[in-house]
Amino acid sequence: MKALVAILAMLLLAHSAAAEPPGGVSAVERGGTVATGGTAVTIAKNLGRKGGWIQNPCDASEDLFVSFTGTATTTSGTPNDADLEPCQSMTLGGAAGAFTGAVSINAATSGHKFQAMELQ
Fold it and tell me: Quick check: 95 pLDDT over 80?
């Protein structure tokens, strides 16, 4: 029993450590809502961005569209760089460097929420 408790404690510590950003980096919430369906919203350019992610919430009923090169539309393909189904996410960079430009986000329905976290 003590061994099981020790293993569970180690797993909990590992999980909580993985959820924290690395030292010297802070996490800033950038999530929001597509207020009017079909009208993109923007996460501003940030030259200090060290990474992050965008997620279409699991309770969403439609796709979320993301563009790094222009204004996101509500159809797959150019200029969209990603078409996120409900519960899917994407990163804003990693080992090769973070994307520091503006990020455009769109959905077909008004009030569509999205989650986003920026590491600075």
Answer: no
